[in-house]
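Two proteins were folded this term; both appear here.
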Amino acid sequence: MAICFQAPVKPICVRPSITFSSTPKPQSLRCNLSVPIRTQVSEPEPVLTSVKTFAPATVANLGPGFDFLGCAVDGLGDFVSLSVDPNVHPGQISISHISGDASGKLSKNPNWNCAGIAAIEVMKMLGVQSVGLSLSLHKGLPLGSGLGSSAASAAAAAVAVNEIFGGRLGLEELVLAGLKSEERVSGYHADNVAPAIMGGFILIRNYEPLELMRLNFPAEKDLFFVLVSPDFEAPTKKMRAALPTEIGMAHHVWNCSQAGALVASVLQGDLVGLGKALSSDKIVEPRRAPLIPGMEAVKKAAIEAGAFGCTISGAGPTAVAVVESEEKGERVGERMAEAFWREGSLKAVKAVKKLDRVGARLVS
């Protein structure tokens, strides 16, 4: 028996209502299409003249959770500086400067830039027509890295516009704005932009209506991600094109059980179970790993060095492993980087980072 993949259906709501589940874990945010769309009473005025925001890197899929699981990673990400600018046409965004990783590859046209698209969408949601904004983007994440580069730009920009106008929009609305950007760049999937905005582990339960569930990893427990990024670009669209259009029932059942085990492990703070489930994808990783030189050897090296599990971060080429301490993470990262060089002839950089529990935020 075979199961066909279908692209997620795009939601049509602009300002959704929010519904929380009755249980504390996991929390659920739901965009309910059956209720009237909330309308802005009046055009908001800016409460600040300028802001600076940050949005973190993200690890999407987490092995068996293709397009519906993701988490945020502390210490890596993009910055957006936004200011009210009388020289910009009212109701519009101007991108004045782009710096950092791969800045020369990005357009300053806001309609073709991840940050610009998300910022424009938030302005539309708020009904801003009388104020022009100038945006500056600093890329802390390389393009095509598998760390949610486009989502970080979109998340930081969405939060920046919202903050300048007093933070009127909720998290789920900001995610929808970010999704508008992701749809243009890499496809309609929220497993990067949702954790980039909300922080922590996020499960996308549904796309129409959009329903997001926060998976609370226990605060008293430590979790470290070993991120090893080779000098190799893996565009998301190209890596998605490598996926099968049909899967067998046995692989479907297996991946569902592993995704369930991963969610349970996150909620329980079970790193052993989390790593085991993370490493167990039988549908997506087997198609993508051969496209990343040395990836299979990198995964083997990570586990032999003591990692609880290892997989491809998002569409790759970054490999992500899970460990319980920074010290072990450094050792595991060294072995993974060595494997990339030995088996794939690729230089790689490593980073050991904690879970980002906050998400996109105002920094100044």
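Next, the second protein.
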Amino acid sequence: MAKWGEGDPRWIVEERPDATNVNNWHWSEKNAGSWSKDKLKSLFEGMVIEEPGLGRITLKELTKCEGEATVSNRKGKLIFFYEWVLHIDWMATSYEDPKKDIKGTIEIPNLSEENDPDEIDVSVSLSAGGSVGDKIKEYLRKNGAENIREKIVQYVDTLKKEYATDLIKPTKGQAVVKQSKTLISPASVNNSSNMSVRKTTDNIEKMDLGCKIGTSKINVTQTFKCTADELYRAFTQREMVVAFTRGDVKLEVEKGGKFEFFGGNISGVFESLVPNKQIVQTWRFKSWPSGHYSTVTIDIEQKEDCTELRLSQSGIPYNEVDRTKEGWRNYYWESIKRTFGFGAILI
């Protein structure tokens, strides 16, 4: 059996200037929410749309910008998630009646990675301006919407080409640095976390790797707008698992059956299955030390108007706690809710 630092290269820091996320195997994520709000504000506020013979339209203020945006790196592949609801106040000067007070609001309810630019809705309302304002409103709705979608394309392009560039780290051969290798050990990892994770300092599991691995436990509760049967099938029916993981899977739904998701990056064994009630499995992330598994227990409870899921996971290496919890949120809960319409709001 390989000793710590030997074998799996993802646990060895290669010729890397920052010595993090070796070979890009880990889940890594940047919250693009604050950046996105600033970017959308700069793109829309002050934007001018002018039509000769009709008038001049100015987008004055982004009054509502609600949603979220994240950029994740999984196995060297960037994954973009963004979902925004925008309200933009506009005003216009009519060349027909320059003194007329004309203003209204633009609503964009579905700015999301799930929609192509031409599928994004741009609704225009008029709050003042009368019949003259109606002409400008109609122009803005039919023609000006394309100008607005062009700005959306700029936002998405900048998010992908500029904001996310540092998530893919240089690997061997991409950076000229000192020829050396440093072993990563749990003792060298900062164990602080701003999440509610119960540290099981007495739970130090002895591995056959010639070292001890410090582990922690997480507990997560989620609610889904579906039945217990539907939620249970989302985890155990191949077609549904393929849908929310967006890739091929290995799935043997029986006691002792194996599973592999996300190109083998997640794997494990079903320990017990109680239909519509509970799933217990050993579970590991491919970048963890060889042979190390955590234990995942998923309890499912049907409520009056929703279904509650409670996840308990023990045996997570200390330095993987935050990344593991974020992975459940991004690639399980969020994806299941968006894919099957089981509710879009996370708790």
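The mean pLDDT is 80. The longest strand covers residues 55-74. These notes refer to the second protein only.
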